[in-house]
Amino acid sequence: MNVLWIFAHPEQCSLNGALLTHGINQLREAGHYVQVSDLYAMGWNPIADAHDVTHDVRGRLIVGAEQERGYRRGTLSEDIRAEHTKLARADAVVFQFPLWWLGPPAILKGWFDRVLVQGFAFGVTGTDGRTRRYGDGGLAGKRALVITSVGARPSSFGPRGIHGDVDHVLFPLLHGTLFYTGMAALAPLVIYGADRMDDNGYRAVLPELRHRLATLFTADPLPFRHEDSGDYDDDLVLRPDLSAGQTGLAVHYGASAVAPRI
Asked: Membrane-spanning residues where (predicted)?
């Protein structure tokens, strides 16, 4: 199988760098083909603007429309087109980054902004004219695994932790980006205490990393509700008979599923 590994950490001689090397070696030893987009090493430009297209932009820049126009015409910038080629080949995508300010580093956010363009990853329609999103879309059929490191201890990211429930912190990425574009998002691997981790701590996290990569193509994805499942009304609001009386992010998990404790 083909795996694209998106690495967003500025230092190879780090915990994340060591995990990257270990993970790539494991996947290749298992017979998978692995490509790596090391965003810092690539000098990836995170800014989406008119320079992303090589065609003339007349008048006011409407980013989504011009990105789609560039995608359709083949006039997106070379670096974006290169990432599209990698994504098209991939059966699974691993996103690895440190959690900064409760989100991915700006360089990875910029990768999403510039690469997941309208017409390619989202804003696509089916033969019935239906917009394909939330469980469907341009990246349907691919799996996605998030690996993120945080400096804090697990309890502080728990249901009553001061940083907020990690399920909620990562929901915009897992549901609003990966699942939205059609990818089957797997339960993320969150590595706690990264700032204080020693060699023993590193060796202790390796078994879970190995397990996640060994089951990359077999593990059940997060049970998000698909938009076309009939669970949502025409205004994209969950039907009142589902998760009755409940609100919050957990209602977007399937009726028979329990929102996972990550």
From this structure: none
